[in-house]
Automatic annotation (TrEMBL):
Residues 4-234 form the ABC transporter domain. Its main location: membrane. It comes from Pseudochrobactrum asaccharolyticum. The lineage of its organism: Bacteria, Pseudomonadati, Pseudomonadota, Alphaproteobacteria, Hyphomicrobiales. This is Putative spermidine/putrescine transport system ATP-binding protein. GO terms for molecular function: ABC-type transporter activity; ATP binding; ATP hydrolysis activity.
Amino acid sequence: MSGLALQNIVKEFGNFRAVNNVDLHVPHGTFVCMLGPSGCGKTTLLRMIAGLDLPTTGKIALDDQDITRMPTHKRELGMVFQSLALFPHLSVGENIAYPLRIRGAGKQEQKQRVDELLDMIHLKGFADRPVAKLSGGQRQRVAIARALTIAPKLFLLDEPLSALDAKLREAMQVELRQLQQRLGITTIVVTHDQREAMTMADTVVVMNGGEIRQVAPPIEIYRRPADSFVADFIGQTNLLELEKDAAQRVLAFGQVVEAVTMPDDLAKGILCVRPEDIELIAPREGVLSGQVSFIRDLGATTETFIDIAGRQIVAVSTQRENTQIKVGQMVGIAFAQDNSVVLRK
Ligand code: ATP
């Protein structure tokens, strides 16, 4: 199997299981983001892939070769971790050339590669600049270039953009993705930022409590979350408890919701409906209804908060058709069945 394969990986620290039975295949040339809340085990997993930690049990293979116990320096990795570890006393060019220099490459080869990489990261002409005189984003790009000096088999990044301000981070996400697409390097990025994962990844791996909860392309993670944890973690969502009445009708908050069907074998469930999929209509039988409690006009979008039995539902609209809706008014919360998911409780 080409690419990276994790088989049944477990990592325990004393009695604590930080990673629990993880199986994952990262096909060659793809971009994977490991996403999850703080402490979910994503860094621990990346460290095992990098050879910085040994799994307690399980196997790691790269292009069919077992690398579980192979030392880091033999894995042909490019790594960018949170602390960039650029050499502050060296210039940009010397930093980028470093991996070649320690392999004994000649001056000419080093210069040629540095020029190529500076071109690639849009820092042409920066070779002699001291690293200390770079902006945060420029430093980040140098760290990325240095990790790519010797074309790696696997490119591993742990929260590589977290130190940057929001605007720069978003720009760098696009740059990093475009770079990876040009080079076709198998890349794994650890992040807790779902927007970052959605922007860059071919495949998002959502983790929680040391386990993988879902592996899917970003849009599928958003549209078809595997469970309520994933639904809640990715983007804004409304999660409503569902049950059936004696006539097998689906109820939420005791109200009949005709737009939802539940599998026969499910007595209870959770409905996931995204705010942008809700249309506010006049209240009527069979449509969930509630009272508007707050309206937030953000310019490009309007968020309407609707109270139902003490719970809040949020609807987002990009249109201006909702301007006639007022706080205190009763509204119907309509959505198409295709735009909602019923999850097991
Ligand atoms: P963050 O986003 O905060 O970095 P993470 O998802 O990367 O979180 P990990 O760093 O992988 O989380 O840690 C997973 C769990 O394992 C945490 O509960 C952490 O406290 C624990 N852990 C990590 N390294 C060790 C260690 N060396 N010894 C003991 N426990 C550890």
